[in-house]
Amino acid sequence: MGSIDFGKIFTLTLFASTFRMATPILLATLGGIFSSQVGIFNVALEAMLDIGAFFAIVGSVQTGSPLGGLGYAILACVITGLVFAIIHLELKANEIIVGLAMNIFAAGMTNYLLVAMLDATGVYQSDLIVGFKEVQIPIIKDIPFIGDLLSGHFPLVYIAFLSVWLVYLILYKTPFGFHLRAVGEKLEAAESIGINPKRSKYFGLIASGFFCAFGGTFLSLSYLNLFAEGMTAGRGWLALAAINFGSSKPVRSLVACLVFGFADALAIRLQQFGLPSQVVLMLPYVSTLIVLLASAMSDERKKKSIMNKHQKLETADI
Amino acid sequence: MSEAIAVKNITKVFPNVIANNRVNIAVNEGEIRAIVGENGAGKTTLMKILYGLYHPDSGSIHIKGVERKLSSPRDAISRGIGMVHQHFMLVPSFTIAQNIVLGVEPMKGLFVNEEKLVKSVKEVSARYGFDINVDKLAADASVGEQQRAEILKSLYRGAEILILDEPTAVLTDMETRELFVMLRRLVDKGKTILFISHKLREVLEISDFTTVMRNGQVVGTVKTSETDQHQLAEMMVGRETIGGRIRTTCYAKDTVLKVENLSVLDSRDLLAVDNINLDLCNGEILGVAGVDGNGQEEFIEAIMGLRPIINGKITIEGKEIQGLSTREIRESGIAYVPSDRYRSGIAIDAMVWENIITGEYYSKPYSKGLTLVMNKIITITKELVEKFQVSTPGVKVKTGNLSGGNIQRVIAARELGLENAKVVIASQPTRGIDIAGTEAIRQILIDYTSRGAGVLLLSADLDEVLALSDRIVVFYGGKISDAGYWDEGIRDRVGQLMTGGLGE
Predict the structure, then answer these.
(1) What pLDDT score was predicted for residue A314?
(2) pLDDT band at residue B111 using 50, 70 and 90 as cut-offs
(3) What integer pLDDT is reported at residue B236 of this predicted model?
(4) Which residues between 202 and 231 in chain A have a beta carbon less than 8 angstroms from any beta carbon of chain B?
(5) I want to staple B345 with a disulfide (CB 3.0 to 4.6 A). Which of A97, B255, B315, B411 is the partner?
(6) Would you call A249 an interface residue with chain B, using a CB distance cutoff of 8 Å?
C-alpha cells in the first residue's frame, strides 16, 4: 500500500473511533433525555455512569460474563435512579442538590468499594474480568470503507446507536411517551386529564439509570477491561451539554454526541502526531463550549423570531 | 326539559371564610346558565366542587337526577362534566389534535395511531362545527384557538355539561362573538353550559338564566330575558348592606399625586392600563373600585416602580417619580400596603422586627452606618406591635408563624407607622383582619388625611371603599371612570361602572 492509501485508512479509523468515543456519552444522553422530558434536570448522570462502570466490573468478575456485568450495572444504576427519585419526589429535595450530592457520593462509594470488594486502590485490572468482544457484521464487513467504518465495533456501540431510534419511538410514537412529555412540559395539563405526574417522574429517573448502566458498562468492559477512579472523565456532564444542545430530542442530541466523540477521537490521533498533549486534550472541552455556544445562539435567534412575529401580530391588530 | 345537574345545600368552609353557604342551583339540559358575582362571591369554589377539585363539607351533587360523589376531575369527566379553565391546559409542543386526545389516544399496536387521531378529532370538531386547524402546534395557536381546543378536549371525552370559567376574560371582542356562536351551537345539540362571568353585558347576551351569588350564597336566579344590567348589578353588590359611613370631614386641598397619560402592560404584554389620568389631593381618601383584573393592580405597581410603564408621567408634589427605583419612590414619600401579603408584603421566614424595618433598615434610626441599632429597633418594633395590636409571642418570631390577619397588621405597622408619608397606597389593607383591627387601620388612614397626606384606597370590599372614600374612581378594562364625590347614589354608580355599565 502506498502512502496515500494509508492516509485514507487513517481518516476512516478516525471516524470509526468517533463512534466508539461517542458511545458512552450517547448512552448517558439518552438516559438524561428521559429525565429532562419529564421535567427533571438530572445532573447525576456522571454518578450513574461511574456506578455502572464499577458494578459492571464486579458483575463480570463474579459471573465470568460481560452480560452478567451489564446485569449488575443495570441493577445498581436503576437503584441509583430510584434513590434520586425518592429523595427528590418524596422528600422534596432540590433536584440539582440531590444530583450534585449523588455525584460526590458515587465517586466516594466506588473508591471505597474498590478497596472493600476488589482489594485494589485507584485502578483494578485483572484477568478475571471478561469484557465484550468486537462484532464483525457479515457482508457489511467486506464492503470497502463502510466495512471499516461500521463493522468491528463492540456490541454496546450498536446498541447505543439503535437506542436513539428506540428512544425516539418511545417518546414520540407511544401514548406513554406522550404522557411523559406532557408531564415535563405542562404538568397541570397532564394532571387535569388524570395522568399521574409522579409516576412519570419516577420512570424518567429510573430510565436515566438504565441507559447510564449501558454507558458505564461500555467504559469498563469494552477495550480496556478495567475500572479506574474517575474513568467517566466528565462524560456525564458532556451528556448534559448534548441534551441541552438537542433540546432533549434524541436525534438532535445525537449530533452533539458525535461532535464530542469526534473531538475525543481527534485528540487521541493528534497526540500521536507530536502536538503538545496539553493543547490537544483541551479539544473535547473546547468543542463542548462551541456546541453550547451554538445552541445558545440558535435559541436566541428563535426567541427573536417569535418576538418579531408577536410584534407583527400586534401591529396587525391595530 | 329534564334536569342536567343540580347542587343541593352545598356548603364549603375554608379557614375563616364560608366560601359556599347552602348553595342550591339546578340547571336544565340544553340551557346556558350564567353564574355571576363579585370576586369572592363563591362562584369559583362552586365550579371546583362540580369538577371534583374541592369536596363539599355538606350537601349533594345530582347529575341527571342521580346523586353522585365527585372525588376527582376524573370522576367528573366520567360523569360527563367538562371544565374549560381560565388558564388553558395545553402542552405547547403538541399539536391541537394531540392535546385533545391526550390520555385517550387511539392506538395502532404499541403506537399512537396518528392518522386515526387526527381523523377522530376532525370528526368531533366537524360535528360541532368548530373552525380549528388541528395540526397546528398549541404554542402557535391563538388564544381563541386554544380555547376551542379546550372545549373540544372536553367534548372528545364525552362531556354533556361544560363549565366555562371566565371564558371571555382572555378573548378579544371578535373572539368572544365567535365563542358565543359556538356555545349556542353546542346547546342546540343538547349540551348544558355553565358560564361564569362578571361581565354583565355578555351574560345578558348569551345566557338563558342567570344565577347571582354574593358572599357564598345564591342571591337569586332570574330569567335573563326578563332582567337587565341594572337589576343584576344591584343583586351582585347588594344594596341593603349600605351604611357604616365613617368619613365625615374632607380635607382635600392641593394635588399631591398626579398621574398623567399612564399606560402599563400586564405580565402577558397586553395593555392593562390604558392612558389613565388621576389626581390625588392631600387630605382626601380616593377610593379605587373595580373587579379584579381590570388594571388596578398594574396601575399601583407602576406607581411603585414595580412594573415598567410604557407611557406617562407620575409626580409627587410636582416631582417626577416615574423611572425611579422603588426605594427612591418610597423615599419621596409613598407608603404602600400591597394586596398580596405573602408575595410582596412580607418575607415569611424573616422575624417580625426584620419585616418591620424592611424598607427603612438602612437609615436612621434603625441603622448607624454599617451596623443596625438593635435596641432602638426592638423598642420601635414593640411600640408598633402594640399600636397595631399584632398578636405575637414576641418580636423575634418568624413572621410566617403568625395568622394571616396578624401578618397583615405587621405590614400595616411597617407602612403606616411611617408618619411622614405624603401618599398612602393601601391595597386591600384590611383583608383578613377582624373588626377591631379593621377599625384601627381605617382610623389610621383617616388620621393621615388630617395630617395632609393623600390616601389611595383599593379594596375588593366595596363597603370599605364606600365607607372611607371622599371620591371614588372605577377601573374597567384598563380605563378609569370617575364615580364622583360621595353621596347617597354613589353605590349604584360604582356598581354600574364596575361592570362596564355606563362609561363607553
Answers:
(1) 41
(2) very high
(3) 78
(4) none
(5) B411
(6) no
Quick one: which H or E segment has residue B220?
strand B217-223
Q: Which residues contact B192 (CB under 8 A, 6 or more apart)?
A: B4, B5, B27, B28, B29, B30, B31, B33, B160, B161, B162
Query: Which cell is B475 given?
Result: 377601573
Instruction: Quote ipTM for the complex.
Output: 0.82
Q: Is B489 helix (H, G, I), strand (E, B) or coil?
A: coil
The residue of chain A with its CA nearest to that of B73 is: A192
* 3-state secondary structure at position B334: strand
Q: pLDDT tens-digit profile of B214-234?
A: 888 898 999 999 988 778 877
Q: Is residue A287 part of a domain?
A: no
What pLDDT does residue B97 have?
95
Structural domains of chain A, count:
1
State the average pLDDT for chain A.
88
Q: Residue A147: how many CB atoms within 10 A of its CB?
A: 16
User: Which residues on chain B are in Cβ contact (under 8 Å) with A169?
Assistant: 111
Q: Which residues of B touch A194 (CB under 8 A)?
A: 72-74, 77, 103
| Domain span including residue A204 | 3-233
Facing residue for A173 by CB, picked from B87, B111, B172: B111
Average pLDDT over residues B313-339: 89
Please report where in the chains the cell 386547524 appears, as a residue.
Answer: B133
Residues of A in contact with B99 (CB under 8 A): 189
Alpha carbon distance B163, B237 (integer Å): 24
Task: Please name which of A218, A281, A258 lies closest in space to residue A16, comparing C-alpha atoms.
Answer: A258
Name the grid cell of B354: 426584620
For residue B296, give the C-alpha cell: 388596578
| A293 in a structural domain | no
Minimal Cα distance from B93: which residue of A?
A185
The answer to whether position A302 is within a domain reads no
Nearest CA in chain A to B90: A189
| pLDDT value at residue B241 | 39
Contact B111 A182 (CB under 8 A): no
Global confidence as pTM:
0.71
Q: A182-221: b or e for each residue (b if 16 or more CB lie within 10 Å)?
A: bbbbbbebbbbbbbebeebbbbbbbbbbbbbbbbbbbbbb
Dump pLDDT digits (tens) for B420-464. Answer: 788 999 988 877 666 667 777 888 888 888 888 899 999 867 778
Domains of chain B in start order, with CATH, are 3-241 (3.40.50.300), 248-333+422-504 (3.40.50.300), 340-419 (no CATH)
Q: Is A185 in CB contact (< 8 Å) with chain B? A: yes
Spacing of C-alpha B204 from chain mean position: 22
Q: What is residue B249's predicted lDDT score, i.e. its pLDDT?
A: 63
- Res B418 pLDDT > 80: no
Nearest to B112 among A178, A182, A193 (CB): A178
Question: Could you tell me the pLDDT band of residue A78, with boundaries at 50, 70 and 90?
Answer: very high
Give a yes or no: residue A284 inside a domain.
no
**Bridge partners, B33 (sequence order):** B194, B209
